[in-house]
Structure formats: structure tokens, C-alpha cells
Design brief:
disordered C terminus, about 110 residues, about 0% helix, elongated, three-stranded mixed sheet, mainly beta
Length: about 110
């Protein structure tokens, strides 16, 4: 069996998410989901904040959506997830390049 590596860059699009003051990112939830019938069970995992990458072993050729979601200590989502799609044509180890910095501006009501 030949293993192919796919490298993806995932970035935040649109406006920067806003969080309640004092919120701390406790983890990044990684979800990779196929689109073909019978291949839609998500592959999930978590990495520590400030992680620069995560890898996922994919065994079924398909079109996939990868999602990276910042979470607080209770598992609550912080802003929208960063997502991207990619195609795997043979079993592969996929490396996700995670966003390294996000600038957030929190504006409080007067």
C-alpha cells in the first residue's frame, strides 16, 4: 500500500469571532467528514491550543470536509469553525496546518 500525504492550510474567513471577556481557549476540536454514502461518520480528535498541526489517517477515497473549532474548558464552541474541503484518491495521512494566530477585538457596550 502506498501512503500519500495531503497538506492543507485552514484559515479563519470573514469577521473575527468575538468571545466573552476572560474566555480562554482550552482545546481545538478537529472533525473530518466524508461525503460518500456510508462514509459520513466523522473522524474526530482534539489538540491543545497553539498546536500548529494535526494528522488524520484516511482509508476511504472521497471528498472530505475538515473543521477546526476552538473550544472553552466546557467544550463550548468559541466563534465559527475554520473549514476546508479536500479530495483523497487513495488511503492517505492528511496533515492539517492549523491557524497560528487569530486577532480578536472585543468591543463592550458602553
Amino acid at each position: 500500500m502506498t501512503t500519500y500525504n495531503a497538506i492543507l492550510a485552514i484559515g479563519f474567513a470573514g469577521s473575527a469571532p468575538t468571545f466573552p471577556p476572560g474566555t480562554v481557549v482550552a482545546s481545538l476540536a478537529i472533525t473530518v467528514t466524508g461525503t460518500a454514502a456510508g462514509n459520513t461518520t466523522p473522524i474526530t480528535g482534539q489538540v491543545a491550543p497553539n498546536s500548529t498541526s494535526a494528522t488524520v489517517d484516511i482509508t476511504v477515497p472521497d471528498t472530505y470536509t475538515a473543521s477546526v473549532q476552538a473550544q472553552d474548558a466546557n467544550g463550548n464552541a468559541l466563534g465559527p469553525p475554520a473549514t476546508d474541503t479536500f479530495v483523497v484518491t487513495a488511503p492517505a495521512t492528511v496533515s492539517l496546518s492549523l491557524p497560528s494566530t487569530v486577532t480578536v477585538t472585543v468591543t463592550t457596550a458602553p
